[in-house]
Amino acid sequence: MNRLRTAWLCLLLMAGIAVEAQQTTPALKISSNNRFFANADGSPFFWLGDTGWLLFSKLTREEAVRYLSDRKAKGFNVIQAMVLHTVKAANVYGDSALIKRNVATPLLKKDHDYWQHVDYIVDQAAAMGIYVAMVPIWGTDVKEGYVNSKQAAVYASFLAKRYGPRPNIIWMNGGDIKGSDSLAVWNTIGNTLYKLDKKHLITFHPRGRTTSSIWFHKQPWLHFNTFQSGHRRYDQDTTKNEPLHYGEDNWKFVEADLKLKPLKPSFDAEPSYEGIPQGLHDTLEVRWKAEDVRRYGYWSVFAGGCGYTYGNNAVMQMRKHSETATGAYGAHDYWDEAINDPGAGQMIHLKNLMLARPYFERIPDQSLIASGQGEKYERLLATRGKNYVYVYTYTGRNMNIALGKITGKLVHASWYDPRTGQYKQIGDFENKGTREFNPPGEPANGNDWVLVLDGTNEPHTISTMGISSK
Length: 470
Prior knowledge:
Elements: H1 3-15, E1 29-30, E2 37-38, E3 44-45, E4 47-51, H2 55-58, H3 61-73, E5 78-82, E6 98-99, E7 102-106, H4 114-127, E8 131-135, H5 139-143, H6 149-163, E9 169-177, H7 183-196, E10 202-206, E11 210-211, H8 213-216, E12 225-228, H9 251-257, E13 266-268, H10 290-302, E14 307-310, H11 313-316, H12 335-338, H13 342-355, E15 363-364, E16 369-371, E17 380-384, E18 388-393, E19 399-402, E20 410-416, E21 423-430, E22 434-437, E23 449-456, E24 467-469
Parallel strand pairs: 4-5, 4-14, 5-8, 8-9, 9-10, 12-13
Antiparallel strand pairs: 1-2, 2-3, 6-7, 11-12, 15-17, 16-19, 17-18, 18-23, 19-22, 20-21, 20-23, 22-24
Helix pairs in contact: 1-6, 3-4, 6-7, 9-10, 10-13
């Protein structure tokens, strides 16, 4: 028996001691129509994630509980976190994760170690009903050759044994990397997790402006697709020579993924972060704001996405008050302050809207827009169920809507405010023909609204407020 196999057996034995007995979060599954997530009981699960990438390495136990409690209160149900940022990873207590920077030899101790700290945070999340999308190893060190396929197999086996019994795990292979960079390693991690952990879903987190489907869509270990729509403006795009040249139009990734066979769910797992410079590297650039993260969310979800992940520049790197230097990408806020940035508090309204009406029947339907779908920031995105319609505008411009596509003699129309989650009633109209709806306020970037149409046979007071007949 070679040393690698011996190490693998020892790790599996030692890993078993860390499993807690009491958890409350059941494992997720893919819905029967293969487009969404579902809870274990079959009820809808809308992924509302946050990028807490350095959660395990930079926060104390007390800070981690504060962070998780805040995210739960704001409606987040998934935290995306790196298990290892690099092979040199150590936590806030000074505990190194690995022996000799080798992923095949995690450093395990009886009293306290890196992995017990991870265990504690994962179990605290489970007690709060929060899933942890665990990135085994960030892509940079893999691309640079610090992890080979043999090491990856041992490491993924260790992870599957230690965290497979926990109910609130999602495996997020990769880490800001093209699948073609170290393809064999990524497939080894994916296949090993898939073989040893049949309970939890697995995906791949790709490089900016790419999607996991490019490399792994037909791999059995990939249960759903994620894409990273990135942090650049239209005029900063560097993917003009790439097969998928979408710019800020993140809805196009969903549209493309949902055309693939076999059908798998897809969503934006890393859009532009609130508080990060547009284009990332020039800290003098204007920064993405709450309205931008809202736009990315509603665009991608209305295009058929099964969820959405929010991000914040200071939070994703867990920048602390002890850090006197400016953080990465010009971060000047601290994580415990930035958790209250406006965009973070507004994400729950997207989740609530999607779950407010029959969820699994929802489909994207641009035919609802009778004319003028628009380009770039003027783009309208429409989705519907059997008796409801949602249409999103980022600029608050007028929209021409084709009626008669849902059940009911009448439609009850209202405006949904993505900033507050409040409805403004418009009125009831015959469910036929075409009508023009005029959102509140003057057209401008960030004056975003959702037109909500509910099919009904019950007459209400007819109002012409906000619309004109055509």
